[in-house]
Design goal:
The chain is mainly α. Helices cover 69% and strands 0% of the residues.
Length: 573
Amino acid sequence: MKRWLALAWFLGLWALAAPLPQVYDRLEEALRQVRLENPTQALAALDRAQSLLRQESEGLPPVLRDATLLHLQDTRQAVLKQSRVDLEARLLLVRHLVGKALYDGFFQAPSGEKAAYLARLSRATGLDPAQVQGVQNLSPEEARRRLESSYLQLMAEDLSRALAAPSRPEAYLSLARAYARFLVIQDSPQSTLKAQDFVQALARVSGGESFRPEVQKLIERASSWRKALAPTPSSQTPAAPSPPPREAQPSSPPEAQKPASPAPTAPSPQAGLPMASPQLAPPQAPADDVQTFYTPPWMGETQARLVRQKALELGYDYNFQLLEALAQTQATVGLAITALGRGDAQAGRSHLDRASWQFHLGLEPVFAAIDPVLTEQVSRTLIHLSTATGIRASDALVVYEALEALRNSFSQGPSPNVWLQLKLWLAQTAGIPRTVFFLLASALSFFPLYLIQLTFGGRNVYWNLLGLAFLFLFLPIVAEGLSYFGSLMADYGNLPWLAWLANLSIGQGLIPYLAWGLTIFFVVALAGAGLRGIAAQFGLLRERGREVTATQDQRPSATTLTSETIVEWDEEF
């Protein structure tokens, strides 16, 4: 029987590792039910989608899986806020992130499975099936060029709609759709766009700033990308008549075709360079740009070159731009601390999610070359806190402190900080494990309180004072468990009005901290008064002992009035 159970368990685990096309089918079925007309059904469908990605996403890379989970969490907030534009934009990003995994899997899948990947890719990213018909029969390079051309055509249409949109919500949605399509083909060697370009344009749209010049630049770069894809091997062979003397070497034309592929990427940033030396311009321009990025003296030559390269790839020409981006991420974490301090966990997680994306897209590649250990810890903590339940303001404060440590590591070099590493590790325990811990501690604290009531619950005033002291001693533990109970029910019990109980936690801010100090004062005062009275009754205090002895001398002897000398022990001792 045990063998059959073990076999069934193994087969169950094997069944969980479903292929990526099947995972997308189930994810698409769940996302169809996400509608603002029925928030309860939408939240339940999002829960199923998150569980699916956590348990059965074997074919999904961890980076894409974590990013998809973050956008699903933002989708929950869009449902709660009843924001139709934000909801549609988040769903677009979720589908296209999974589409990116399908796109990569298409080129790695066996020939018999390519059609399944291609069909799901078409549904996930909105490609016309006629455009992708027969792509599975092409060579990998030809298939890549054809798919990229299709996405770039759709991206150009979306950017044109954003440029001509009559309102900011429509522009934001069109720009988000173009950004989602870019995510699918972002690894192309001919790419002239960066994710940071779209993020900055989206920030301008949502921030009420002028965004049309940024969109126009995106259109121009997308156009240059399409021109880079236009040359095919058949069209490049006529371009080789320039070296006619080498007729004796028939293998030279194929070799001349290989360096031609990166060449089209140079004209877009180098449009103002002279035409006399087009081959020497691309290597020189990055060097001129990188020299403006100052690196501190503590960096070695190799590390400084790597940091400059990463900064240039992210669009930072100067080091103060990198530090300003870090300050913006810290400001976003500060907004999360403010939201969590007033008990608004949804807004706090939203700000942490935004900070996580700012860190991943604009900071992590550079700081990973400076302090990889601390950078990885900050990245994990941000991802965890943006989806965890029961997070407190003190958790976000640790992230703020870690970002400040990264700033110091850039200017002064990385230094080991065991205390900060410990706090970051403890911040990653937020969620269900920490909630269960405090709920269990709160529940167990009632048993000692019950025993204290049995022990000190008599009619002696001093014993009652000592019992009250124990009650105030356990009160912070009970309040902490109650705060985590409210957070748990608000997130998983569909009772958002219980979220205000999080304000009872000591980790929320100044008021709970001072309330905890006040309970300690009560413990000291009540325990001191009760123990002093008990000590006096036992004759351990000199002044009180004399009074007790005097009162005992005035009482009648036990031989005269036996009935009047019978007293209960808790009244005297």
